[in-house]
What we know:
The complex is a heterodimer.
Chain A: H1 14-19, E1 23-27, E2 31-38, E3 41-48, H2 56-79, E4 87-91, E5 96-100, E6 105-107, H3 108-113, H4 121-136, E7 139-140, E8 149-153, E9 160-164, E10 171-172, H5 176-193, H6 198-211, H7 215-228
Antiparallel strand pairs in A: 1-2, 2-3, 3-5, 4-5, 6-8, 7-10, 8-9
Helix pairs in contact in A: 4-6, 5-7
Chain B: E1 3-6, E2 14-21, H1 26-35, E3 41-43, H2 51-66, H3 75-83, H4 89-96, E4 105-111, H5 116-124, E5 129-131, H6 137-141, H7 149-162
Helix pairs in contact in B: 2-3, 2-7, 3-4
Amino acid sequence: MAVQQPDSLTPSATVPQFLRGAELVKQGAEARVYRTQFLGRPTIVKERFSKRYRHVALDEKLTRRRTVQEVRSILRCRRAGIPAPAVYFVDYTSHCIFLEEILRSSTVRDHIASTQQSELEQLAQQVGQILAKMHDEDVIHGDLTTSNMLLRRSPEDRGSDLVLIDFGLSYISALPEDKGVDLYVLEKAFLSTHPHTEALFQKLLKSYSASSKKSSAVLKKLDEVRLRGRKRSMVG
Amino acid sequence: MNLTQELELFPDHTVTQMLFKEVKNAAELRQSAVDGRINGALINPTMLVNPFQVLVAANKAVHLQLIGKMKTRSLNSEIIFNLSPTNNISEAFKRFGTSDGDESVMLVVVHCKNESQLLEDIAAQVDGRQVPVEDDFEKSYSISLEETCGTLLDAVVCRMAIKDVM
């Protein structure tokens, strides 16, 4: 049976057309995020858009590569047992990724903001562990913030588990430098979003160190990157 | 009895799943499929975890047909290929397609909205007893899966969606 489409609709317009009926959740520098129903399931659609200032062929290649990297990173994490949304469909013509919507969850950011620090120890430990696992798989998240980590409540209320989301800037790398930078990004985001949580972050790093087989090299690089940061004197 | 879902991305396309038990003519059906005489995909239901799996495979197949990038020769064979987590076509057919001697068959048809006559005609080719498609195949097939059945489906579906770039 041949597939028919109205003449005015090119293949790469199928998904954007569909998205007009979807709820726009977020507009970022790289992509738009929508919520909708897909094949009977609540779904998140991530649409990377073209950058007009780029040369067309280059833009196409770059955008495609980013989409592929994102999707590969998600699968790598999942294979290693790290919770990340399941991918339902990828349209490489419109650079759209259809992902599982994680229901019954809240961001770690919101959780920290509404919880006493004394009760956040376990969370810090969990985060450290999950990041250690991810880096041991050589997946660099690229945009680690507490908004990109979800706490999903389990159905029978058996506590909650952590789910990593937004792998838009992710890539594969074994270099301790890249992992160190990944942690540095989290540290900056963490401390600026949640004031006076240095001790908590230290616990996170401790948990990371205990859970990762390659942590010492990474933490060494983290120290170096910290020294390199903005407004740091490289003298002496 | 049938499970029907319209493909949101391809509004003129609807996917209907029909499950049959005590099938006596699996060999004949398989030959019809190979010859292109049956307008549906014949799938081995013991390999299925959930109807959603079939929908994901069908959606991808229709998409690839539309952009002219199918890996197999027909929409129906593409659906079967998409069910497999690997890129080996013959392996996909062997594991997910109907084999001679199979006693149960899942028939999947991609069609326009109200084509009940077409579905009846295709279903008539199967010599077996039609049973309802359950949301949870585990119930129908007593496959022993652990509690994390939901996760298993997600794992399967995710692999299906990404395999071409892994």
